[in-house]
Write a structure and sequence with these properties.
Elements: E1 2-5, H1 12-20, E2 25-29, H2 32-40, H3 49-53, H4 65-79, H5 88-91, H6 94-99, H7 108-114, H8 118-126, H9 130-133, H10 142-152, H11 168-173, H12 175-194, H13 196-205, E3 208-213, H14 221-227, E4 232-237, H15 240-248, H16 257-260, H17 266-291, E5 296-300, H18 301-304, H19 308-318, H20 328-340, H21 343-346, H22 355-372
Parallel strand pairs: 1-3, 1-4, 2-3, 4-5
Length: 379
């Protein structure tokens, strides 16, 4: 069992293909967006990673216990193939429909099976209580999010928890939440009956189960390391200058709300959010490595593209798995990708960031440079 813990625009899509294309691997792409939507009722695809780990004023967010523990439990269910316990938001997530078997290679038959339910899922998603609970994560206070969580997970509306349902006027005020939860519950029942067996079969038969996440933190990894002796973590990071420049090319769904407050200072603001989040993860990781030696594998993307063969060989060795570089699937699917993801592409940012922009980014990222132990990050 493996979690690739990383960050938006850190080379994680390419990195994930090292597992997604492996015929022995069950690989799940970005499952935690669904976790946050199912937890609080926020809109799917709008749980922006920078907003989960940072406040709108740019300060680092302390994740509540319900999120830290919830992510651990959710990933544990996914990696142990307890798929029936997972929410409809994951089983019918828009990512599955959009990317299909390209990012969910092990789930091709399942993707085909759920195709007829896409419109039904869109109708349920349109009922998300966005006015009450926020369209984008972070638009509402933590207190309001907790209220939304309790309302969604009341029995029978959300399929969990033991809280009693409200009566009278209060019940009417939460009607939007009840309708959303009921819609998701009913849709999940259909999927469990008609399609889940396809996904379950692939999860059960594959020997390597992998989840790549950009919305998790190292804080949630401790419970998984403690609970599952065969659980491993890969911590993938990339030069923050490359990351923030790449994020700038995306729309406002890929950057934090703090960054959006000043369009003239996008790179430095996003660097602040990124670097303080990664630094916290590294510090937690260093503590975990002392308690769970040999079970966390840090990878610097910028170093990997320069020694792709060596890093990927060592990565599979870390997983107690045979070297895959001489297999047919590797030669046919990974080597061509490697050619496209050259060192020149990975270092493209160097010709696009000015001296002043570099200095502004470094102001927020010096601790990350000190802790990351990257061979090819030049200040």
């Amino acid at each position: 069992m493996l979690v690739v813990l990383t960050y938006q625009r850190s080379g994680s899509t390419f990195f994930g293909k090292i597992f997604n294309k492996n015929p022995d691997a069950f690989y799940m792409f970005e499952p935690l967006d669904a976790f946050y939507s199912s937890l609080y009722g926020t809109a799917m695809r709008w749980n922006v990673p920078s907003d989960i780990t940072n406040h709108k004023n740019g300060t680092l967010r302390t994740l509540p216990k319900i999120e830290v523990d919830g992510v651990s439990e959710y990933l544990s269910s996914l990696l142990t193939c307890d798929l029936a316990s997972l929410p409809a938001e994951l089983l019918l997530h828009p990512y599955i429909y959009y990317y299909g078997a390209g990012e969910y290679q092990a789930a091709e038959s399942y993707v085909n099976c759920i195709g007829p339910y896409e419109k039904s899922m869109e109708r349920c998603a349109d009922r998300s209580p966005r006015e009450r609970c926020g369209f984008r994560f972070g638009e509402r206070t933590q207190q309001r999010l907790l209220e939304c969580h309790r309302a969604i997970h009341r029995r029978p509306g959300g399929g969990g928890g033991n809280a009693t349902r409200p009566r009278g006027d209060r019940r009417a005020r939460w009607k939007d939440v009840d309708e959303y939860a009921a819609c998701m519950r009913d849709l999940k029942t259909i999927v469990l009956k008609n399609c889940l067996r396809h996904l379950q079969k692939q999860c059960d038969r594959r020997t390597l189960r992998v989840a790549k996440v950009v919305r998790g933190t190292m804080l949630s990894m401790e419970a998984l390391l403690r609970r599952h002796p065969n659980f491993r973590v890969v911590h993938l990071v990339r030069d923050p200058r490359a990351v923030v420049l790449s994020r700038k090319g995306f729309d406002w769904s890929a950057v934090g709300r703090y960054t959006l407050l000043d369009s003239n200072d996008t790179l430095a603001r996003e660097a602040k959010l990124l670097c303080q989040s990664v630094v916290r993860d590294i510090r937690v990781r260093l503590e975990l490595e002392r308690t769970y030696p040999g079970r966390i594998y840090p990878v610097v993307y910028d170093d990997m593209v320069r020694d792709f063969r060596g890093v990927t060989r060592d990565l599979y060795r870390f997983l107690d798995y045979p070297d895959q570089q001489n297999t047919e699937w590797w030669k046919k699917t990974i080597l061509p990708l490697r050619a496209a993801d050259s060192i020149e592409r990975a270092t493209k940012w160097q010709s696009q960031i000015t001296f002043e922009q570099n200095r502004a980014i470094m102001k927020h990222c010096r601790d990350l440079f000190r802790l990351a132990n990257a061979q090819h990050w030049v200040q």
